[in-house]
Amino acid sequence: MMWVSEEFREDMPSILADVFCILDIETSCLEEKNKRDHFTQLVLACLYLVSDTVLKERLDPETLESLGLIKQSQQFNQKSVKIKTKLFYKQQKFNLLREENEGYAKLIAELGQDLSGNITSDLILENIKSLIGCFNLDPNRVLDIILEVYECRPEYDDFFVPLIESYMYMCEPQTLCHILGFKFKFYQDPSGETPSSLYRVAAVLLQHNLIDLEDLYVHLLPGDNAIMEEHKREIVEAKQIVRKLTMVVLSSEKTEEKEKEKEKEEEKTEKPPDNQKLGLLEALLKIGDWHHAQSIMDQMPPFYSTSHKPIAIALCQLVHVTIEPLYRRVGVPKGAKGSPISSLPNKRAPKQAESFEELRKEVFNMLCYLGPHLSHDPILFAKVVRLGKAFMKEFQSDGSKQEDKEKMETLFSCLLSITDQVLLPSLSLMDCNACMSEELWGMFKTFPYQYRYRLYGQWKNETYNSHPLLVKVKAQTIDRAKYIMKRLTKENVKPSGRQIGKLSHSNPTILFDYILSQIQKYDNLITPVVDSLKYLTSLNYDVLAYCIIEALANPEKERMKHDDTTISSWLQSLASFCGAVFRKYPIELAGLLQYVANQLKAGKSFDLLILKEVVQKMAGIEITEEMTMEQLEAMTGGEQLKAEGGYFGQIRNTKKSSQRLKDALLDHDLALPLCLLMAQQRNGVVFQEGGEKHLKLVGKLYDQCHDTLVQFGGFLASNLSTEDYIKRVPSIDVLCNEFHTPHDAAFFLSRPMYAHHISSKYDELKKAEKGNKQQHKVHKYITSCELVMAPVHEAVISLHLPKVWDDISPQFYATFWSLTMYDLAVPHSSYDREVNKLKVQMKAIDDNQEMPPNKKKKEKERCTALQDKLLEEEKKQLEHVQRVLQRLKLEKDNWLLAKSTKNETITKFLQLCIFPRCIFSAIDAVYCAHFVELVHQQKTPNFSTLLCYDRVFSDIIYTVASCTENEASRYGRFLCCMLETVTRWHSDRVIYEKECGNYPGFLTILRATGFDGGNKADQLDYENFRHVVHKWHYKLTKASVHCLETGEYTHIRNILIVLTKILPWYPKVLNLGQALERRVHKICQEEKEKRPDLYALAMGYSGQLKSRKPFMIPENEFHHKDPPARNAVPATVQNGPGGAGMPTSLTINTVRLEEGTTEETDKLKEKSQGVVKVINKTVNATPKVTTSNGNSASNSKIIKEKDDKEKSGKEKDKEKKDKTPAATPEMKALGKDGKDKPKEERANKDEKAREIKEKTPKSDKEKEKVKKEEKASKEEKSKTVVTIIESKSTVEKEREKEPSRERDLAKEMKSKENAKGGEKVPVAGSLKSPVPRSETSESEREQKRRKVDTHSSPSHSSTVKGTAVLPKVPLVSENYSSSRVISVHFLQDNLNELKDSSAKHYINHTTPTLSKSKEREVEKKDLDKSRERSREREKKDEKDRKDRKRDHSNSDREVPQDSTKRRKDENGTTGSSKHSKSESPSDSPRLNEKEKEKNKSKSSGKEKGDSIKAEKMEKSSSGSKKESRHDKEKTEKKEKRDSTGGKEEKKHHKSSDKHR
């Protein structure tokens, strides 16, 4: 046995044990038990070969138990586990320092040693490994200790980072992250505070990518959800604070309590739990790991992280470092040293910016994360702004390549974004830092204003809602603004201004928005607010300009008041504020001006109010209709005189502000566009903008637009240099034809250009030749005028139709429009007035004892300098005016061509020159009046002064009705100046003879050969001129009364304005004044409740009118009625088309007219009067005068015939009695009258005179008449009788001698009878009832129509009687021919009303031809009786009218007697006052007597004289007393009938039309 065992291999037991192990596994799987048993037996048998130790190692515990090697398998298992645990899991490495203090002490000594030598991380790592092995140190704990030591030695990044990196190769990757996580968790207790050193270590490890941010982030508190909730809570809190601030708290105690509560709350919330994410972020920023920092910020709400000051400051510091090199290169101001910032030692930190492109890539992104919290670092703020400034400098200097330009554009847009998102919000959070505001303005001023305003808009309307802090700041600013504004007064402007200034440095948009809202409500705040804005920065002023524009453009605000007739007060207040603030402070105007221009482009003219205010305040140019005549006079002088005497306020120190305004206009090319837009918008106001608006508002807007244009044009003319002006204003034809500028505005803009041009040319010529003689100077001036104006003459031709230039020359047109008052007259009195004022000032300065001597000296020097300037200016203007007058003298012969007629020439002159310009401005109104007078004084060929004045005064209704309020005021000024001239001529025969007597403008016959001054008979003499003036006054009264009675707002307002303006010269005649006074009084009563503005106007005028009453005179003093020697007879030529080339629009009765045959005068009357006679029966020896506007042939025929008649009249006079003064002009007139008048007229002269006398208000005028008549009855009774007899016998002798003439007369009488019977034509008397007109025959009406059609002039048929009151010159177009015909009936009725009402007040009646001593008694009796009868017959009259309506045939039958008598009475009574005053200048008693005779004989006053039958003449002479009584009754009837108003008249008119 022993031998065998020795034979086996050494490893045999082990192999067997392995075999048994396999068998054990296999047999345990078999089901047969015997095999298992065999296995057991086998093992037991082999025990001597394999030791039990090996078997216990290899076999399962259950098998060992069955073999009996162990007692229990379970116990064996437990024992083995214990042994394994002991062997394998019982740690031999020591974790706690106390377990292996020696090892750990050595480790700390190793890490904490001086690292400055040659010691490297690799060397230390080997030592650490040795220590771990030797002392069984725990490797994780070793890593933890390495981190701890690193925290304590942060300066050794370069050592520890590689050490940790190398160490990590021995550990699992997550180990480091877990260890850091456990470290952070340790500090997450509510009371725990994470040390910054830990944050820094984590940050460094993150930066070197030793850990991932995502892995570490989950270990940090608080969670992202908690952060989000906190952010939302902050926003809610901010809103609550705003709500509390806007609430009204009454008691001050409550507020104090609340403040205490707030403080407590703030203390509580001041210590939030530690935010580890923000701590890590701060550490990342400090070491310059922008990439990871950005990742953390992105996971938080915007600006949440930077709202924490440490983070904001850390980020700012990073930006400081990044921009350093670029800032040092381009941003440092000259002379500033600065403190350079060293770069981060960290190579992984962001790259420093060397160029603007790098700045954009790196820094702008950081700034965007900073947002409003850049406010924590004002220095960085300033640096960024300076870099922006430097960039803008580079951006604006051109010369870079296309690629560079694109880069620059991108950079610029980024800069704007940074400004919007960072700079402006940061400024809001800075505490009133004025320096930063100014610094920012340095950059802003390089931006165009469009960008600036866009930024301000974002700042104001969006930025403040983007962040809770800004929400609070906004509320606090408004609260503080309210506090200041409540206490702001004129007295505390300085302290309040300082407070406003402080508040404005940081939050100007919010502050100004509130201030402007207050100004819009309370306009009395404007002055103190403007004064208190003196402490603002430049940026703030610019923001203020934006805020003003935004307030103006507010779409929610209505620009009209609720009544829709006036501009809202908020807009007026803002405009006023604009003017004041832009004048006082250097604010850029471009935005405001562009805004106004854009509004005009959009067809909105409300905002012109702003431009008007700005120009007024900045340039000192006022536009007001309230100017006194003294101011107006001063405005016609030079610039110095204008400044001193032309404005209400003293205009001082506008030089700088007007320069700023000029620069703004020129820099942005707004000067001409604004002018053109305003000129076009004037019509736009009416036709586009004004569609829905109230007429009153449209008028206001039109005036505002026009006034602003005048003011703005005046500013440009006085402030732009010649070159600037000429360069910008195109020629007149381009302005009118291409830009569609109205002609008046176009010339207004061009006028300064012509003046500039002429003066510069004149200066050139003066320099060229040194001749000093006055003639040389004048010659040079005229040459320069010709050079400059020749192209203008060419250009104006295209402005009007070719036929216009048949009457007036382009030269005349251009001259009229290019001159100003400065060129026509020197306002000497104004110069004297201002010089005297200065002298008084100097005396006051001398007398002032308190003034210090140096100030005295200064003031005196100023006054002396001003005085010298004024005198120099006066001298200069005097020379200029003399040159201009010389030029006009040479030009005048080519002015008026009159190829059609004189009448047409005047029409064109008024229509194209006078009317458009007289309503353009107050000075232009004065200019127009002066120009008319000048043209007269120059003895201009083809210019009829009389005709011109007559047209102006004869019918002002249309002109007045179509004016706006301000235009009416200017039109009133024009009429006032015209009346002033006329009144001067009327006042004194000497003046009249000197200024008019020998002038072609006062010719009453315009000969074909032209004017020869020698023929006195062709001139209008002084007395007749006085009659004409009276007629004009009457015409003005008629028009005024008509306008006042229309009930139309515009008519009433405008006529009251005009009447107020002409008060100095009208009314002069007492009865006209009384008529006006009654109408105005009526207006006062009617409008008191309805239209208070009309009531105020009427009351104002009424008061002034009463104060003028003592200066009014009776009619007979205004133009003589006592019989002077006169060469006029009553045939008046009416306003007409200018028949036979005469100025027929005047009621001039001259010898020339009377000397013609009756036929000729009749024809003339037919032409000129609105009422036409039947011509077909009037057969004459002489050819008829055609209905054309007159020609030289007809002129000469008439003149020849008149000369013949004159001779024959004179011969007959000589044959008659030598006693009578036949040689006097009066006798001549009577002699000639022989052909025209029947004997009856001469018989009833006294009666006629009496009737005329009674037409005037009885009290004054009767007394005067009575006195005159008493003298006359003694001295002239015999003369009068002789005259009558003689003139009768003259007629008889003429008839005997000249049978041919008798035949003609017979024919004439027939025609007159026809006229009497069938067509009672209302010619005499101021106003006719419509009845006679209705009875004109069909042929007559046709002829009238034909006449109207043939006359091209639109303004020729206004007759003295008022039967057809027509426009003198249409304002807009010449298409008045239709309206002429229509207006006849309409106005007739209105005028009849006027006539009737005046008739009631001036009761006149015809009286028998008694001796003068008895006349008065009879008159009184008649008057009483007539009153009684009138009452009795009132009812009968009403019945009569009804009968008349029913029975036309009856009415026709009555006409020859009743209506003629009625007409006669009307001529003598109802229309008497007016007729005697105005209609015929033949108003001396003698002529009036003739007129009365005509009335009696139903001859319509002017032309029926020779058609009266013999029986009528006998009747009138013998039974005149009886007839006059009957007449008087008829008159009373007629008065009553008329007094019932125009309606019955119109009905009657219609009925008689039907009958016709």
Can you characterise this structure?
- The structure is a single chain.
- This protein is mainly alpha-helical.
- It is 70% helix and 0% strand.
- The protein contains 74 helices and no strands.
- The chain is elongated, with a radius of gyration of 56 Å.
- It starts with a helix and ends with a helix.
- Mean pLDDT is 74; it is low at 1-5, 1008-1014, 1122-1268, 1271-1303, 1305-1414, 1448-1525 and 1533-1556.
* Cα separation of the termini: 183 Å
- Proportion of residues in helical segments: 55-70%
| Assembly level | single chain
Number of strands: 0
Please outline the major beta sheet: none
Instruction: Count the DSSP helices.
Output: 74
Low-pLDDT stretches are: 1-5, 1008-1014, 1122-1268, 1271-1303, 1305-1414, 1448-1525, 1533-1556
Secondary structure elements and pairings:
Blueprint: H1 2-7, H2 12-29, H3 33-45, H4 52-58, H5 61-67, H6 73-89, H7 101-112, H8 121-134, H9 139-152, H10 157-167, H11 173-186, H12 196-207, H13 213-217, H14 224-246, H15 252-269, H16 276-287, H17 290-298, H18 309-331, H19 356-370, H20 378-396, H21 402-429, H22 434-444, H23 449-461, H24 468-487, H25 493-506, H26 508-521, H27 526-532, H28 538-552, H29 569-584, H30 590-601, H31 608-619, H32 629-635, H33 639-645, H34 655-667, H35 671-689, H36 695-719, H37 722-728, H38 732-738, H39 743-768, H40 774-796, H41 810-818, H42 821-824, H43 828-847, H44 853-891, H45 902-918, H46 922-937, H47 945-954, H48 957-961, H49 965-987, H50 989-997, H51 1022-1046, H52 1049-1061, H53 1070-1090, H54 1092-1108, H55 1115-1118, H56 1151-1155, H57 1158-1168, H58 1192-1215, H59 1225-1236, H60 1239-1243, H61 1245-1255, H62 1258-1275, H63 1277-1297, H64 1299-1318, H65 1330-1334, H66 1338-1350, H67 1377-1401, H68 1412-1446, H69 1448-1468, H70 1472-1479, H71 1485-1496, H72 1510-1518, H73 1520-1539, H74 1542-1555
Helix pairs in contact: 2-3, 5-6, 7-8, 7-9, 8-10, 9-10, 9-12, 12-16, 14-24, 16-17, 16-18, 18-19, 18-20, 19-21, 20-21, 20-22, 21-23, 24-25, 24-26, 25-26, 25-27, 26-28, 26-29, 29-31, 30-35, 31-36, 32-33, 35-36, 36-39, 39-40, 40-41, 40-44, 43-44, 45-46, 45-47, 46-49, 49-50, 49-52, 51-52, 51-53, ...
